[in-house]
Amino acid sequence: MTSPATPPSSSSEGASHPEGDHRPLTVLIGADTFAPHVNGAARFAERLAAGLVARGDDVHVMAPSIGHSNHGTFREQIEGQTMTVHRLPSWRWAPHDWLTFVLPWMSKHYARKVLNEVKPDVVHIQSHIVIGRGLAREAHKRGIPIIATNHVMAENIVDFTTLPPFLDKVVVKLAWDDATRTFDLTRAVTTPTRKAADFLEATTGLTGVIPVSCGIDMRNYAPDLTPRDANRILFVGRLTTEKHIDVLLKATAKLDPALAVTVDIVGSGDQRRNLELLTQQLGLKDRVTFHGHTSDEDLRDLYSHASVFAIASIAELQSIATMEAMASGLPVVAANAVALPHLVHDGENGYLFEPGNVDEMAARLTDVLTAAPEERLRMQQASLDLVSVHDINRTLDTFEALYRDEPLPA
What we know:
- This protein has 14 helices and 16 strands.
- By secondary structure, the protein is of the alpha/beta class.
- Helix 2 packs across helix 3 (131-141).
- The chain is globular.
C-alpha cells in the first residue's frame, strides 16, 4: 500500500477537479494508525487521502513513523496516489504486535509544527486519542475547521491496556470523556454507520453525529457468481480477541464432515498463536490455513474463490472486510452486533447469529453451504446490490461537502 518514502517535492500530483467544483483544498489528515499498519481505520484513512488526491486536493497526513528513527516529511505513494506524509517519532506499544504511538505530551508540539508548514483549509482527524487530540486543539486555536471521524470502540482498547478489568472501565470512561472534549471542538463528527453514530451519541452525549460509509471502490473486485467446486469459508481481519475468531473455529468443528469445509484466515494479530493452538485442539489443523498478511492480488483471489465470508466480531463500526466480501459477490454469515446488521440483512445476502453462539453460527454456515444454486445466486446478487450504496465516490463527495461547509449530497 505504501512505497518507500522519498524526500518531498513541489510538483503537483493528482487529477484536476471535475468541472464545476471549487478550487482544490489543502487537507490535513491526522491519523494514529496509517500505512503500513493494517486495520480498518488505517485503510479508511489511506483510501480517503488517495481519493482526495485523485480529485486534485493537496493532501497532507500526520501519522506515526515507520520505525522510531524514520521520522520526517516524505512524499509517499498510498493506494496509487502520491501525497505528503508527516511521520512523527513513535514508539512500539509492547502489548500489541504492531501498534505504534506518538508520545501524548508531544502531540501539540508536532501539531503546531505541521500546521505552521501546511496551513490547511481544513483538518480531518481519524482518532481522538493522541495525534488527533493534539491536532484538534491546535487547529481550533487557529480557527481552522475540524472534521472528526470516530473508528474506536471500547473493545478495541481494553485488550491492550494490561490493566485489571475494574481499572479498564475507569480508563475507558476517562477516555470517552476526553473524546467528548475533542469532538466539541469540531465542525462535524462522523462515523461509518447509523448504528455506530447512535453508539457514539449514547456514549458521549453528542448529537448530530453523521454516518458516512468508509466506502470501497467496486471496480477493485471481481465477483464470481458461478457455483463453487469446494466449500471454503473466509475470514479477513486482525487476529484479536474482539474478533471472536475462536467462535468461527468452534463452529467449523461442528459442521458436517461430509461438507469437507476448509477455512482461510487472513490477517495477523496477538491472538494468532492461541488460535493456531485451538485449531489443533479442535482437530482442524489440516482444514484451516492462517495466511497472515497477503498482497491485494492474493486477497482478491481468496474473495473470488470463497463460498462464504464469516465474521463473529462484536466490535465492528463498519467492517471494510465485510464490504469487500460483498463486493466480491459473497454471502455473509455475521454476528448480530453493532454495525454488522447494517451490512448483512438476515435472509437476504446471508444470515446473522447471536454473538458468541457457536451452534447458531454453525447452523447458519450450513444454511449457506447447502443452499440450492439458485438460492446461493440470490444471496450473492443481494450482496452486490446492498454494497453498491457504499461506493467510495459518494464518501468523497460527502467529506468534501463537510470540508467546504456545504449541504451534504442526498
